[in-house]
């Protein structure tokens, strides 16, 4: 398969509540990202080579590394990602995204031109070994955490809703898997100011175990919201003094909901329990409604880089409000607690 030949196409657009696909911050790089054209060969799904390459490049920026590398490094680092996260039938051809991303206005391959702008051969790329990566303008835009979060959320939601998002975030180093594992975090020992690694004699070591380790994309989303509940804006505090929140699946995993960002809301414990117990539900407009009274209690807050698939919200709502969605079959559910 070759990018740049055959039909160009965008991935099918799902409907979202939130700011992931619908409205990203007014920013040139994000707009160009949204307008990115992807290759689709006949009888094949849209190629993920460009989105995978961009995730890798965003990981470099998240790690505060230079936005461009030599081709050989790009080839060695991106090829395994294309192999793991690309479509099964896609070949591993890093020369395609590295070359054709230039046409989207956010990427450059320094000092290499070809006749008719055709993709250069791997041998030529190896010989010239050009610098490749984001343009300086795109890198500067994406250096801002909120813009970068919007870009990551957009790519994840639009192109990787069925992928292993945890593995993708970890492998691209956007959200390393072991960065904030609470079970290994050294927390202050009360009254001593010491960590449990340097506990003075006679003092007892303290570790937090209340909050189990989250998958990478859940932690990414919690960070995006600074652990603030999307319903009430409250944050919880753990024994180590850090703020905490919970990730609430909209459509439960055991009812076929995907383990992905567009099926997740960040909540405090109270609203998480109420949501799971069907005591509250969310309208297509983001109003949080009490199921028993029908009264609107709050409005969901969304931050750029996150959106929830309306199909999942409707599924949850159908469990709460009978008859509202006769088209959705009533699934087996425990019902209100
Ligand atoms: Zn709350």
Structure description:
The chain is of the alpha+beta class and 337 residues long. 31% of the residues lie in helices and 13% in strands. Strand 12 and strand 13 form a beta hairpin. The longest helix has 15 residues, at 71-85. Residues 1-12 and 178-211 have low confidence and may be disordered. The chain binds zinc ion (ZN).
Protein traits:
337 residues; alpha+beta; 2 domains; three-stranded antiparallel sheet; 13% strand; binds zinc ion; HNH_nuc; HNH nuclease domain-containing protein; DNA-SBD_ScoMcrA
Provide the fold topology:
Blueprint: E1 8-9, E2 16-18, H1 28-34, E3 38-39, H2 49-62, E4 68-70, H3 71-85, H4 95-100, E5 107-109, H5 122-128, E6 131-134, H6 136-142, H7 145-159, H8 165-171, H9 216-224, E7 236-237, E8 243-244, E9 246-249, E10 264-267, H10 269-276, E11 280-282, E12 287-290, E13 296-299, E14 307-309, H11 310-320
Antiparallel strand pairs: 1-3, 2-14, 4-6, 5-6, 7-8, 9-10, 11-12, 12-13
Helix pairs in contact: 2-3, 2-7
The chain binds zinc ion.
Zinc ion binds at residues 229, 231-232, 234, 267-268, 270-271.
């Amino acid at each position: 398969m070759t990018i740049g030949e055959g039909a160009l196409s965008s991935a099918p657009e799902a409907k979202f509540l939130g700011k992931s696909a619908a409205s990203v911050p007014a920013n040139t790089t994000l707009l160009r990202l949204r307008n990115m054209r992807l290759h689709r060969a006949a009888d094949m799904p849209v190629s993920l080579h460009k989105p995978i390459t961009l995730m890798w490049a965003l990981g470099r920026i998240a790690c505060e590394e230079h936005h461009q590398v030599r081709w050989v490094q790009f080839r060695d680092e991106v090829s395994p990602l294309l192999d793991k996260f690309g479509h099964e039938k896609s070949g591993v051809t890093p020369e395609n995204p590295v070359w054709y991303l230039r046409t989207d206005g956010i990427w450059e391959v320094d000092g290499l031109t070809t006749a008719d702008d055709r993709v250069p051969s791997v041998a030529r790329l190896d010989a010239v070994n050009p610098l490749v990566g984001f343009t300086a303008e795109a890198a500067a835009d994406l250096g801002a955490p909120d813009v970068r979060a919007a870009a990551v959320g957009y790519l994840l939601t639009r192109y990787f809703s069925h992928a292993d998002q945890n593995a993708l975030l970890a492998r691209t180093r956007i959200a390393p898997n072991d960065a904030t594992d609470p079970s290994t975090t050294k927390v202050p020992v009360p009254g001593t100011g010491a960590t449990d690694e340097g506990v003075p004699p006679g003092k007892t070591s303290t570790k937090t175990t209340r909050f189990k380790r989250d998958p990478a994309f859940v932690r990414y989303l919690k960070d995006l919201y600074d652990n603030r509940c999307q319903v009430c804006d409250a944050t919880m505090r753990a024994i180590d003094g850090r703020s905490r929140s919970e990730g609430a699946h909209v459509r439960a995993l055991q009812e076929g909901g995907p383990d992905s960002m567009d099926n997740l809301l960040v909540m405090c414990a109270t609203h998480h329990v109420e949501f799971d117990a069907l005591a509250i539900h969310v309208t297509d407009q983001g109003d949080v409604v009490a199921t028993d009274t029908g009264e609107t209690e709050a409005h969901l807050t969304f931050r750029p880089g996150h959106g929830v698939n309306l199909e999942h919200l409707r599924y949850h709502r159908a469990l709460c409000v009978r008859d509202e969605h006769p088209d959705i079959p009533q699934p087996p559910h425990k019902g209100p607690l």
